[in-house]
Structure formats: C-alpha cells, structure tokens
Specification:
formyl-coa transferase, domain 3, Heat Shock Protein 90, Ribosomal Protein S5, domain 2, 547 residues, alpha+beta
C-alpha cells in the first residue's frame, strides 16, 4: 500500500517512473518505466484510489475527475491498493466515439488479463464483468492448471514440455500437439523476462519448429518463456512495449528453433480420434434415447453411402478358410454424423468363422486406408501419407551423403521450356544433379531427360521435372539451400508415393507397415497431415454401450 502523501503524488506525471539514471534505460526490468500510466488514465476518466499500508490503522482515499484532483482523505479499507476507473472519455466525446462495443472492449481486457495471468502464475487474480465472476485464479496452482482455467483442459493435457539453457538464454516452453493447432497464432504466448511480447523472428522460429509436423496453414499452440540479460534487447521501441528489438535476433531465432524442434522431433505425436456420445430421440436396442456420433476424423476416411464389401478386404485364401458364411455388407457414411442401430437389426449379422480371420491384423478399405489392429484398439492409416513420410525420410537421408541413385532411360524424354526456365535450370544445376536427374540441351529451349532417380520410379518423369522447375521458379529465390532442398524432397515424396485409390496386396501392406518402423517420426506426412489416427478399445466399448 501507500500512505496518503504518496497516493496523491502517484497520479502526477512521471512520479511512478522506475528510471533513476540514464543508464537504467539499458536495463529495464519492469513492465513500464516512464511513470505515465496513472497520470494518463486519470486525465480522461473518473478515478477513485484507496490504499492502506500495514503500519496504519486507517486507509487513504483520493478521487480524480478527468485530471481535477481532490485532496486525500481518510477512509476504511483493507491492506493494499484499489484503483477504480469509471466513465472513460466521458468528457471527451471525440475520443469516446472511437470506443468499441462493450463486448469488444471486454475481449481486449480479457486478453490483457490472460497475458498477466500467464506471466505471473504465482499471483491470485480475479476478473469480474457486470457483477459476474469470469476468472478466479489461485497463485498456488501450477502453470498447467492456470492454462486449464484460462483456456481448457484439452489444451493443458496436450502440451509438451521442453527447456534449454544455452548461450545466456534460458527457454521454457509448453508446446501444443498438432491435434490442437489453430487457424491463427492467437494462441501463441511469448514472455521475455516476464513481459508479453510479439516478435516476428520468434513467431517464425515457432512455426519452423513444427515444419513437417503440422499443415502449413495451421498455427501451433505455444507458451514460451524466455529469460535473458536485459541489456541484450530494447523494449523502448513501441508505446505498448509489446514489440522489442533484439541486438542479436539470429541467435534468439536459432536457440528457440533448436530447442523446440529437437523436442518435437524426439516426441512421437499420434493423432487420437474422439468419438462423442450424445443422447438421441430414436431407439437403439430398445434401451433409451441415444445415438452414436462419429467425428470428422472418421468422416474423412469413409465415403458417403459407399458400401464396403468385407469379401473384398479378405484375400482369397482367407475367404476359403472362412467358408461360405461371409460377412454382411457394412455401410460407412461420412455424410451422416450419427449411426442409429435399430433393435430389429441386432441379429442381422451371422457368426464369423474366427479361424479364417485369426491371423488378419490389417485390411485395406476404399483402396486408400489401412485398418490395423493393435493391442488396445486399432489404427486407421492413410496409405499415401505414410508412404510419403517414409520416402521423404529415405530421400533426405541419402541425399545428405551423396546424390540419389538414378537409372538411365532407354528412350530419353524431352520437354520444351521457356528462356526464364532455362536460367532456373542453370542456377539450380547442382541441386538437380544431386536429385539424380540428368538433363541435357536438345535444341533451342528443349531439354532431354536422360536419367531419373530410381526412388522416384512411381512418379511420371515429364510431370515431375515440370513441377520441379515450377517449384524452383516460385521458391528458389529467397529460400536458403537447406529449406529449398526440403521443399523439393517434399514434392518428390508426394509424387512418388502410393496414391489414394490404389489397391495394395497383403505383402505390399506388410512391407509398408514394416517400413514404418524404420522411420523416426511416422506420425505425420512431410506436409504436416496425420498419417495415422488411433481409436482406442474404450472408444468402441462406449459406442456399443459396453461400459
């Protein structure tokens, strides 16, 4: 608290400044430092401030009306300081008309409250709006519990913790799994020595850390806490103090990127399907009002009203072992979010000869997805995305040591390109050679493809080279060589991978699943889409009301 004299003085310009000498400007450790906030707000609103120090039996009160300050007077209050701000801009209609709606302004206040709460998890904080308590946060709760209160339990439970301390920069981060990514970077909170900041270098480092683990148009949830010497950055570059200027921005970028990416690459991030169960007015097995909803994750995999004949999913040998019983047709529909099972249908499925199916641990559906049985449920695998990841890792591994192995074409294929594209080929000749592609001039603006990488045998030769030239034209300028190579390998893996709609034999599926074990991170394709979604046995049991 403050005594009466200090309470009155606090609302004068610069009296609460933290600066004592000019040297202090190079070591700013407080949120503000010029001492202008209280005086500024008191000049445009009605203020009532009450404060009491522990050694005093009475509190002091001062009221200010748009800069007109009364003398302090004794009053009754608890220890500490309370400041009330009312009727903002009520004497300044020109300024007042620029205020947004109450809901919009409340959103801004809530966001500021959230930033303060995340930066100071040791404080008790309460936010009340129109008499309704929005937040009551305890300073005894952990940071994760505070995130539960401010956001959701889902976000808190899907955060990966990492920490590093190198080159005078201490980093602590809670990183959201790709499953909870957002459409904007609004859920990225960066704190520098307790100060909330926005910085394009740090935002880029966070985004780059997730490259290959998340779709390019998505943004990760992240809570990042940085501690570093105050003299290594300047906060006095923007009135809000949200923007800072680092004296070595490249070091900050590399340290954050290294810390975050190392943790993400070392963490197996698997996508889990969620199947909510809701009540419904129809009858299911005659036991009550309920329906079973399949989430969008399931809807992605099953085409609307396209029947799946189980006989197509079992090899001829399995059919023979299963005898003549067979399975009835199952209709998976992505167009309907709920599946209603009528009581009359509960005996419609004949018994299955288990001997014929006992060894089957996987099957292909719609020539695009593989269902694999695991101990505690099953996986649905996107065959194209998984093969794409496998090819990408192999391409990346081999090209780091030498160029890709290539095979000479019996009949060279030719393509005509523009003069500008000829220059692109010459500029990127070394990269093209490393890819195992041999291009030789075959006339004015005509090139012949004489050799092509064996690992990309599934790709169409002409189409691949044209797409490669387009990629180099679009992204070859401005990208560092490593990132450009990564973009090229992404495209190569996508072009050469097994396609959706391609029928696979049992041996091909077995090989694909075996190759998966050789990849360090098989959970997502190089573009960040999930390769696998897991459904737990408990999810199924809930759907069939077995729990």
């Amino acid at each position: 608290g403050m005594d009466g004299e200090d309470l009155v003085r606090a609302f004068e310009s610069h009296t609460t400044s933290k600066i004592k000498t000019s040297q202090d400007l190079h070591n700013i450790s407080t949120l503000g430092f010029r001492g202008e906030a209280l005086a500024s707000i008191a000049s445009v609103a009605q203020i009532k401030a009450v404060s009491r120090i522990k050694d005093s039996n009475t509190a002091n009160c001062v009221e200010i009306d748009c800069g007109s300050k009364g003398s302090g007077s004794p009053c009754s209050a608890d220890f500490g300081t309370t400041i009330q701000v009312r009727d903002l801009f009520y004497k300044l209609p020109a300024r007042r008309k620029f205020l947004r709606t109450a809901n919009t302004e409340m959103e801004h206040i809530t966001e500021q409250f959230t930033r303060i709460a995340l930066a100071n998890s040791n404080l008790d904080l309460t936010l009340i709006h129109n008499g309704r308590e929005i937040y009551r946060l305890s300073g005894r709760d952990s940071l994760r519990q505070r995130i539960v209160e401010l956001f959701s339990k889902e976000i808190s439970e899907n955060l990966i913790e990492t920490e590093s301390d190198e080159k005078g920069i201490h980093i602590f981060a809670l990183l959201g799994r790709p499953d909870i990514s957002k459409t904007s970077n609004k859920f990225q909170y960066v704190f520098l020595n307790g100060r909330f900041i926005r910085d394009k270098f740090i935002s880029h480092a966070i985004k780059e850390a997730y490259r290959g683990n998340m779709e390019p148009d998505r943004f990760p949830v992240a809570f990042l806490y940085i501690q570093m010497p105050y003299e290594d950055y300047d906060v006095n570059v923007h009135p809000t103090k949200i923007e800072v200027r680092f004296y070595n921005a490249n070091l900050i970028h590399s340290q954050i990127l290294g810390c975050l990416r190392e943790k993400l690459l070392g963490t197996e991030i698997q996508t889990h399907a969620k199947i909510p169960i809701t009540e419904h007015t129809g009858h299911a097995f005659g036991t009550g009002h309920r329906s079973q909803k399949i989430t969008d994750a399931m809807a992605e995999f099953f085409k609307k009203h396209r029947p799946v004949q189980t006989q197509q999913l079992i090899t001829a040998e399995r059919q023979a072992a299963a005898g003549q019983t067979g399975l009835a047709t199952t209709d998976f529909s992505s167009g309907q979010r709920a599946i209603d099972i009528q009581a009359a249908d509960t005996t419609a499925y004949p018994n299955i000869d288990q001997a014929g199916l006992s060894q089957v641990k996987f099957l292909q559906i719609h020539d695009s997805y593989i269902i694999e049985q695991i101990d505690n449920g099953f996986l649905i695998i996107d065959q194209h995305a998984l093969h794409e990841r496998i090819l990408y890792e192999r391409l990346h591994s081999r090209i780091q040591n030498s160029k890709l192995e290539s095979q000479r074409l019996l009949i060279p294929e030719s393509l005509e390109i523009t003069d500008a594209q000829v220059d692109i080929l010459k500029t990127n000749a070394e990269l093209i050679e490393k890819l195992g592609i041999e291009l030789v001039p075959f006339g004015p603006r005509v090139y012949a493809i004489q050799a092509f990488p064996t690992m990309l045998a599934r790709a169409d030769t002409i189409d691949f080279v044209r797409d490669l030239i387009d990629l180099l034209t679009e992204k070859g300028v401005g990208l560092d060589p490593e990132r450009l190579l990564d973009e090229v390998l992404n495209m190569a893996a996508c072009k050469a991978a097994i396609k959706a709609g391609q029928r696979l034999s049992n041996s091909e599926i077995e090989q694909l699943l075996a190759d998966r074990q050789q990849v360090d991170y098989a959970g997502r394709c190089p573009h960040g889409r999930p390769t696998t979604i897991k459904f737990s046995l408990s999810d199924l049991e809930k759907q069939f009301k077995r729990t």
